[in-house]
């Protein structure tokens, strides 16, 4: 019987707690350490240590980084230097330059690194991608999304573009198999915070597909909806409920079957399998870096009021 992989979670905020919960019960994984600089909260499912180096002393074989975005580069370097495969929560880094450095660091060592874009593992989006790939929508010509809800008090180091819009930038490129070519945006921060609270984004993919995205953390209404429209109708993926709905040209509406597995469990199972060399669908660091580059284009477009070619971002 193959020994379980020794794992650590770095960062123990709301997302870190969820990662620890799932890893603690995941087959083939032994959660042996949690990094939380402020100390043991008293209910952690594994020993709590204060630094990454202390976690490395447990002989870890994989790590999940759920610490603040501003710390990802330093933590990623330390894990890569120790030869530890890592899943780094999205956004991969706070800038495209740092994201590319992380991707290059892991690649140069021949080491697995991936990004925690959890919406890729939602049952609705997984089913939607399969149907698009099978040609059920015909030629896709638009992708539209709404990602709105109340302000998350856990966030302080980035705005709504890096924290939330990165979900939609990643999903759109992944669902269509097309990278963003050009982006325009308008943002606002009526809350008076340093970073933007609201953004509207319009985009053009490399094949000409048109996209639009409304992202806000100023709404009492919570909505997570992606609509993909093509010559064969439209699909609506609700990632809050995991429901996928097809709307035909004749007005008919059909709710389609999805597997309804917990997205985080699917994501971590994929990461574990990839570390074990079994092959799996993970979001690569290169993909994560492209998402951050697209997010930078959005921020530049909102700042200047002009369209920005994604490749123009330094």
Task: Kindly describe this structure.
The strands form two sheets. A nine-stranded mixed sheet has the order 14-13-12-11-7-10-9-8-15. A six-stranded parallel sheet has the order 3-2-1-4-5-6, with helices on both faces. The chain is globular, with a radius of gyration of 19 Å. It contains eight helices and 15 strands. Strand 11 and strand 12 form a beta hairpin. It is 32% helix and 27% strand. Helix 6 crosses helix 8. The longest helix has 20 residues. The protein folds into two domains: 132 residues, Rossmann fold (3-Layer(aba) Sandwich), CATH 3.40.50.720; 163 residues, Dihydrodipicolinate Reductase, domain 2 (2-Layer Sandwich). The protein is α/β, with parallel strands linked by helices and 314 residues long. This is Putative dehydrogenase. InterPro entries: Gfo/Idh/MocA-like_OxRdtase_N (IPR000683), Gfo/Idh/MocA_Oxidoreductases (IPR051450), GFO_IDH_MocA-like_dom (IPR055170), NAD(P)-bd_dom_sf (IPR036291). It comes from Microlunatus parietis. Pfam families: GFO_IDH_MocA (PF01408), GFO_IDH_MocA_C3 (PF22725). One of its GO terms (molecular function) is nucleotide binding.
